[in-house]
């Protein structure tokens, strides 16, 4: 299934065919927590943990984009009750990164 709402989320054919080594900055606390998880066997390495977290976030963003596209094609947005239910189930507070109420 393609992402019509945001084609930038669909990489071109052949993209990502091999691993690359981007630089990612984590806080000391985050890195220490990940290293502890690796030490107790929750992940095979720091790289694996970060790659899995990125894959999960990309899938969530792709799914949200598809959902937004669906609502746009139907011509209406989810109700406030639907959004409140989703926020509760997802464990998010409904605020954007600046602390403002998300719409």
Automatic annotation (TrEMBL):
Domain of life of the source: Bacteria
Composition skew (Basic and acidic residues), residue ranges: 84-103
Bias type Polar residues, positions: 1-10
Region (Disordered): 1-29, 75-103
Name assigned to this protein: Type II toxin-antitoxin system ParD family antitoxin
């Amino acid at each position: 299934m393609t992402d019509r709402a945001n084609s930038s989320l669909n990489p071109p054919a052949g993209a990502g065919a091999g691993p690359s080594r981007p630089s990612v900055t984590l806080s000391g606390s985050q890195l220490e927590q990940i290293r502890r998880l690796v030490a107790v066997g929750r992940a095979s390495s720091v790289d694996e943990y970060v790659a899995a977290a990125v894959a999960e976030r990309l899938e969530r963003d792709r799914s949200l984009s598809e959902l937004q596209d669906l609502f746009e094609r139907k011509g209406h947005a989810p109700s406030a009750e639907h959004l409140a239910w989703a926020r509760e189930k997802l464990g998010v507070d409904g605020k954007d990164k600046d602390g403002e109420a998300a719409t």
